[in-house]
Design a protein that fits this description.
Layout: H1 3-8, E1 11-13, H2 14-21, H3 25-33, E2 41-42, E3 49-52, H4 56-67, H5 72-80, H6 84-117, E4 128-132, E5 135-144, H7 149-166, E6 176-179, E7 189-196, E8 208-212, E9 215-223, H8 230-242, E10 246-247, E11 252-255, E12 268-276
Amino acid sequence: MAGEEVGAVNLVPIGRFSKMTRLSVKALRMYDESGLLPPAYVDPSSGYRYYELAQANRAEAVRILRSVDMPLDEILAILATDDPELVHKALLVHRERLAGRLAAQERMLTYLESLIQRKEGIMPYEVEISEETPQQVAAVKIHTNLSRIANDIGAGFGSLMQAISGEGVSPSGAPLIVYHNVIDQETEGDIEICIPVDGEFCSDSDAYGRELEGGTMATTVHRGPYEEIAPAYHTLTGWISEHGHEIAGPPRETYLNDPQVIPPEDLLTRVDFPIHTEAG
């Protein structure tokens, strides 16, 4: 289709459509690949995308929903239905999600202020050395980043519990996560979600069974929201260095109570670092 023919059938090229809709060309290509906003026509020789003017309304809906961080699959479901009740329910779910994020951000700002002003001290933790025995766990490993780690952890625990239930196995201890890499604003990494089980575990899913290593641990307990756990790590790594020990493996977080029934300020998380002691 030549450029004149494109204009004749009321199609516009991707660059112009980008300016019309305030969506970048990169975003439009991604929305095409996801099925969210496919072009009306793709030139078979050049691969260049063209859009109908009428698609601007759908593009505006996508732009607004993405501006409030709605996931692509949920946007696709909303735009695929003509049922206003389903649309209302989907928007309500996302509104509640955003309210939860806002509450978490407000807690983080309060926590940050206390750190800056040293109201409560930065390191209110007691460190102990413990000897942990190896234990059998069902596990799943996930590659994640800071922006999606909370969702990945929730989904990972959900799929792991489903795999355990499907194999007729029962949990035998508190759930935990092994952080194989440092994950920050710039760096992705692997986490291993684990649930202790009695005996060996195998599954047809991504879940697997293994023996989680035991050994000597430097350990402390964090009380409060998961988002405020960083000082526990500062305390442990500083304590390990000050006492002449060496870190011997990735840290673990063990979740001692249930966030579904316990308020954030009362959550208990044990943080363990495997260590080589000075004597060892």
